[in-house]
């Protein structure tokens, strides 16, 4: 079966394959450096009671901070940060003065209740803190995290590139 393909579409496929290959090399480099830094962090943590950094080390309370949006219309994948809102109670200075005055004069019990304001605060928890406090985390583990986080946009580009390739190939088959 001979397939007639235009020069433009074959050049487009070759360009996309070249881009895909370059992205795979970047991904391989990022993962290689990430696992190297993870090995270094495990070496420095060898005498700890909890052992190596891994699945048994972290707690299950962390919720992911990234969302993947797949659009059927444009056939693209987007990876975005999830906005986590947390309520924080806060008492203002005026209300503190009022409550002190009320306590001194011992007015009605209902009036002496503290009033609180609730406001939504954007919270972006860093998963690395489950491996220790802010100061006790080894720098190699921080570098490991940054290496793996730098690979996330590469996944997005790889998937979108792969989808474009499949779309062009399907058009040329017809």
Number of helices: 3
Q: How would you classify the helix and strand content by structural class?
A: alpha+beta
Shape: elongated
Helix content: 40-55%
Distance between the termini: 12 Å
The chain-level mean pLDDT equals 76
Characterize the quaternary organization of these chains. Answer: single chain
The main sheet orders its strands as 1-2
Task: Give the helices and strands as they follow along the chain.
Answer: HEEEHEH
| Total strands | 4
Radius of gyration, in Å, reads 27 Å
**Poorly predicted ranges:** 110-118
Q: Major sheet: size, sense and barrel closure?
A: 2 strands, antiparallel
> What portion of the residues fall into strands of 2 or more residues?
5-15%
GO biological process, one term: vacuolar acidification
InterPro entries: Vma22/CCDC115
Region (Disordered): 85-120
Protein name: Vacuolar ATPase assembly protein VMA22
How would you describe the overall organization of this protein?
The protein has a domain at 1-58 and 132-174. It is 49% helix and 15% strand. It is built from 3 helices and 4 strands. The protein has a two-stranded antiparallel ribbon. A two-stranded antiparallel sheet has the order 3-4. β1 and β2 form a beta hairpin. The two termini are 12 Å apart. The model is unreliable at 110-118 (pLDDT under 50).
